[in-house]
């Protein structure tokens, strides 16, 4: 049995799929990649039906994982739910650092490192795999910067679906090894994630792969949407003032924005929205450049480099969806230097005892930077996304050697 008994066997409220650019309608329950015009596809629901069927109390009584939002998710049959023990990820305030920065409102980390495979990629890939299972897919392929490939490999193996994964050959070793160990055929490519994406595109017809690349199928957004649903519920259905999100392909930012619109449509929240803040690294900041230039699409970023491998994404096919959400929310896109990311990681770990991943640390660095330039205020309640467990990443050597046979001056230890 792959579905925990607590998951209600309710029909989904999906009505159709829709091109994210043109609004063209496509049928639900069919296998789709990009829309006929070549844009990402969004899933649409009968929200009036959801409103009539779902209450906050009903949700509160369900198991603490993303299937508690089942009416807003696309899986039709419970037998297609693939589960690895999902949890609601905790909100962890940073009170010591907040005091040090002189801020008067809460600074909260949503720690996604607690999910299966140690990252928020579990949300999107779990839903992609459930839907692939529902629609009869046998082989899935994707390019990855690490965490997404690991989540795909894990959930697909659990579902009995074959996977082929391509990653840049300098992806963190732990990611490459977990992908391979969790059952994918992994290829380490001498290029960046967009080069890996080209290989999936070129090979899929010959090899019979379903292309699971970021935003090239409709369901990863639906999984990532649960970050927004969960955050809203955890905050008592009150929106924070700002959300800092480490942005590569941007699925999570787009997904949360969609979640908030759906929650308003079903009457769970009002019209207040957080400022959506897309965080990138200075060595790879195509969204920041497009935001500042007032453009709706981002040009390819040449020679992309950053210590935060997950956000080393030189081109994002959903760039317009990211930029639309950021602008509509009154937010902004911001780039941080690698040195600031490394310092942020150290500060949060040593002061608060919370080990972030580099991409998560980038959000704290960006928050500090935005406080400094006045784009967020000291009274703003902010949420920073830590997308993966810090334990997956190489760390600086810690500790000092101690000779137990020598004389030890304990007063100096
Ligand atoms: C740890 C981490 N943070 C952030 C990202 C970027 O996520 P998104 O593609 O949703 O923008 C990734 C993607 O690989 C990641 O692994």
UniProtKB/TrEMBL annotation:
Pfam families: PALP. This is Threonine synthase. Its EC number is 4.2.3.1. Gene3D superfamilies: 3.40.50.1100. It comes from Ferrovibrio xuzhouensis. PANTHER family: L-THREONINE DEHYDRATASE CATABOLIC TDCB, THREONINE DEHYDRATASE, MITOCHONDRIAL-RELATED. One of its GO terms (molecular function) is threonine synthase activity. InterPro entries: Ser/Thr_Dehydratase, Ser/Thr_deHydtase_PyrdxlP-BS, TrpB-like_PALP, TrpB-like_PALP_sf.
């Amino acid at each position: 049995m792959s579905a925990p008994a607590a998951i209600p066997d309710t029909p989904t409220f999906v009505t159709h799929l829709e091109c994210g650019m043109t609004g063209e309608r496509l049928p639900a329950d069919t296998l789709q990649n990009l829309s006929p015009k070549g844009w990402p596809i969004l899933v649409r629901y009968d929200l009036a039906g959801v409103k009539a069927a779902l209450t906050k109390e009903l949700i509160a009584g369900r198991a603490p994982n993303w299937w508690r939002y089942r009416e807003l998710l696309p899986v039709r049959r419970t037998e297609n739910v693939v589960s690895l023990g999902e949890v609601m990820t905790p909100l962890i305030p940073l009170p010591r650092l907040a005091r040090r920065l002189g801020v008067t409102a809460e600074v909260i980390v949503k720690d996604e490192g607690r999910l299966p495979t140690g990252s928020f990629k579990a949300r999107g890939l779990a839903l992609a795999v459930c839907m692939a299972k529902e629609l009869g897919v046998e082989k899935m392929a994707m390019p990855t910067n690490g965490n997404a490939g690991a989540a795909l490999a894990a959930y697909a193996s659990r579902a009995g679906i074959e996977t082929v994964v391509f990653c840049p050959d300098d992806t963190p070793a732990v990611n490459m090894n977990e992908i391979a160990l969790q059952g994918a055929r992994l290829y380490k490519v001498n290029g960046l994630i967009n080069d890996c994406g080209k290989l999936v595109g070129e090979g899929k017809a010959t090899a019979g792969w379903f292309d699971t690349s970021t935003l090239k199928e409709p369901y990863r957004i639906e999984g990532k949407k649960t970050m927004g649903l969960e955050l809203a519920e955890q905050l008592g259905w009150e929106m924070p003032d700002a959300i800092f999100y480490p942005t590569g392909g941007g699925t999570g930012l787009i997904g949360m924005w969609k979640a908030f619109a759906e929650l308003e449509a079903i009457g769970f929240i009002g019209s207040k929205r957080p400022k959506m803040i897309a965080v990138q690294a200075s060595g790879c900041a195509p969204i920041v450049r497009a935001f500042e230039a007032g453009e709706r699409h981002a040009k390819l970023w040449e020679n992309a480099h950053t210590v935060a491998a997950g956000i080393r994404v030189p081109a994002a096919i959903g760039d317009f969806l990211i930029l639309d959400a950021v602008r509509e929310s009154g937010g902004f896109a911001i780039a941080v230097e690698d040195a600031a990311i490394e310092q942020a990681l150290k500060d949060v770990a040593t002061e608060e005892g919370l080990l972030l991943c580099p991409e998560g640390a980038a959000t704290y660095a960006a928050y500090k930077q935005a406080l400094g330039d006045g784009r967020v205020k000291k009274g703003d309640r902010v949420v920073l996304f830590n997308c993966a467990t810090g334990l997956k990443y190489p760390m600086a050597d810690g500790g000092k050697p101690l000779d137990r046979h020598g004389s030890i001056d304990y007063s100096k230890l």
